[in-house]
Amino acid sequence: MIQKMANANRKHVAFFGKRNAGKSSLFNLLLGEDYSLVSKQLGTTTDPVYKAMELVGYGPVRLIDTAGLDDIGELGELRVKKSKEVLQKIDMAIYVLDSSQEVTEEEREEAKRLFQRFHIPYVFVWNKRDMVGEIMEAEWKEKYPEDIYLHIHLTEKRKQLVDCIVKKLELQEQDPPLIGDLLQYGDRVIVVIPIDSEAPKGRLILPQVQLLRECLDYGIKSYVVRDTELPEALQELKKIKLVITDSQIFHRVASMVPPEIPLISFSILFARQKGELQDFLEGIEALKKLKEKEKPRVFIVESCSHTQSHEDIGTVKIPNLLKQKLNPNIEVMFQQGRNLEEDLTEIDLIIHCGSCMLTRKQMLNRIQVVKEQKIPITNYGIVLAYFAGILERSIEILKK
Predict the structure, then answer these.
(1) DSSP label at 182?
(2) Is the pLDDT reported for residue 3 higher than 60?
(3) Start-to-end C-alpha separation, the chain
(4) How far apart are CA 338 and CA 341, in angstroms?
(5) How far, in Å, CA of 65 to CA of 79, rounded?
(6) What pLDDT, in 10s, does the model give residues 124-176?
(7) Res. 376 pLDDT band, cuts 50 70 90
(8) Assign residue 81 a region: left if phi > 0, alpha if psi is -120 to 50, beta otherwise?
(9) pLDDT of residue 204
(10) Gyration radius from the chain CA atoms
């Protein structure tokens, strides 16, 4: 039985190309089912289609089928825009070329520019080889020897696709651990999980589950308590190497934990694993400067969509802290779930969530978009640690 895995832990592989190049057919071939609609009609695929699968020889991945990059008209331009937004999400791109149609050097170079912007590994694959002569194909193979020329027979074609994807993905660096490189086998940590109005009844949220699983993988002994039981746990347990807490109770937990015991939040651990911690720390310098601006604009970004309560960190607690402690004239804007907006004109600072629902590549691509526009970015946990006056303490263990 295939076990479920969060999409944030899957490598994302997307099919690109012109309309009717055969992207959807190859997408379905890999899946082994007719998941994406296939038709001779141009522009059949509209919005990107996502499907998780287990890739033999590698493991869990998420495949994405996109609309043709040559789509036209007002609706076609929207489809192309959606396809290009996928670039922020992927770890590998497959550009499908139609052997029966003219393939220009301009088309290839444009595709390369799209992928190179976000440092995406890519491969060109030639489809529909049964519709072209041997002489023409020989010329292509001589000119583009690194391309993949897909077999006519489906079994061989699928094997070629799997092999080229596995090869590209295996060359990529593995995501860094959350705490496995900070502690040693047998070390003890206390994990503080608050039970408030936002805590899902009967289950843990993804960051908590992932951290506890990593403790098991690395042989780190974890003790889970609520903040109300933390003082007693600290008395009962000896040789605690680290306390990990939810960012929203950072200040309260910090007052309970002796200064000699390192303290950190889920959000800061994910900031280090999924993004670039130094970029987020530099964002705090921009945060301080909001005091001096007449009407600064802050963009708060979350990687998932959810309903909010009066205790919500992103839409309630952080905005209140910004206005109370820095500048009452701060204008706060919000985004949930979607790709990061490409046009961030006049934004003074972006405050991003812990990004547990994003892959590391997706978060790095968001940082890339921000850097291109010279806009500082930081993270929920880092901001809350700063306002609690414990930022230096909360990142001390990361400096070792």
Answers:
(1) T
(2) no
(3) 41
(4) 8
(5) 12
(6) 999 887 666 676 778 788 888 999 999 888 999 999 999 999 999 988 878 88
(7) very high
(8) alpha
(9) 84
(10) 24
Q: What is the residue type of 320?
A: N
Give the pair of three-digit tokens for residue 107: 């088309």
Show the DSSP H helices in 72-133 as ranges. Answer: 73-85, 105-117
- Evaluate whether 223 touches 233 at the Cβ level (below 8 Å): yes
The tokens of 262 are what?
């390192």
pLDDT of residue 200: 63
More confidently predicted of 315 and 51: 51
192 CB neighbour count, 10 Å cutoff: 26
pLDDT mean over 81-102 = 91
pLDDT for position 133: 62
3-state secondary structure of 399: helix
Q: What string of DSSP letters covers 29-69? A: HHHTS--S---SSTT---S-EEEEEEETTTEEEEEEE---T
Rounded CA-CA distance 120/143 in Å is: 23
- What pLDDT does residue 102 have? 80
CB 323 within 8 A of CB 300: no
Distance CA 306, CA 342 (A): 22
The pLDDT value given to residue 310? 46
Q: Of 264, 284, 191, which is closest to residue 229 (Cα–Cα)?
A: 191
Q: Which of 174, 95, 84 is nearest to 369 (CA)?
A: 84
Cβ pair 101, 50 in contact under 8 A = no
By the 10 Å C-beta count (0-12 exposed, 13-18 middle, 19+ buried), 351 is classed as buried
> Are 89 and 365 a contacting pair, CB within 8 Å?
yes
pLDDT for res 309: 47
Rounded (10°) CA dihedral 177, 219, 397, 314: 60
CB 275 within 8 A of CB 282: no
- Average pLDDT in the chain: 87
Structure-block tokens of residue 152: 């006519």
**Residues 6 or more apart from 330 whose CB is under 8 A from it?**
290, 295, 296, 297, 298, 319, 322, 323
Bridging pattern class, strands 122-127 and 59-65: unpaired
Distance between CA atoms of 222 and 213, rounded to whole angstroms? 10
Report, as an integer, the average pLDDT of 200-216: 86
Q: Read off the pTM.
A: 0.81
